[in-house]
Amino acid sequence: MNTFPTNLPDHDRRRFPRFYVGSHLTLAIEDESLKESIGLGEPGDISLGGLRVRNLPACPNVLVGDRLGLLLMDGQEALTLHGEVVHHGTEDTFGIEFRDMSPSENRAVRGIIKRLA
Predict the structure, then answer these.
(1) What residue ranges do the domains of the chain occupy?
(2) Which of 16, 39, 89, 108 could form a disulfide with 93 if both were Cys (CB 3.0 to 4.6 A apart)?
(3) CATH number corresponding to 14-101
(4) Residues 26-41, buried b or exposed e (16+ Cβ, 10 A)?
(5) pLDDT by residue (tens digit) across 99-112?
(6) pLDDT score of 21 more than 70
(7) pLDDT of 114 above 70
(8) What's the predicted TM-score (pTM) here?
(9) Which of 21-25, 34-38, 84-88 has the lowest mean pLDDT?
(10) What DSSP line would sit under 67-108, residue for residue?
């Protein structure tokens, strides 16, 4: 995992540009330690490094450090990913950093980003 200086603005610490997501992506989230669904949320933005989750009813119960399973669905494909909660942006948003991405998962995320751009 790369570490970045904390005194820089967010846009200067990002390794990958983020792309804002419209309403055509759905995100199902599972707590990997409990192996149970915690609900449907909306991806607010996505990059090759992770995504921002918003409007998840269980958001207050999600903690920094939680490992989550993600099912990201758009009109063309469904993609299973794994990530870790790295920050809470607001009361109803949090950031996930992707973990253990395979080359095919990386290509699939690139395809989703390409369709958004």
Answers:
(1) 14-101
(2) 89
(3) 2.40.10.220
(4) ebbbbbbeeeeebbeb
(5) 999 999 999 999 88
(6) yes
(7) yes
(8) 0.81
(9) 21-25
(10) EEEEEEE-SS-EEEEEEEEEEEEETTEEEEEEES--HHHHHH
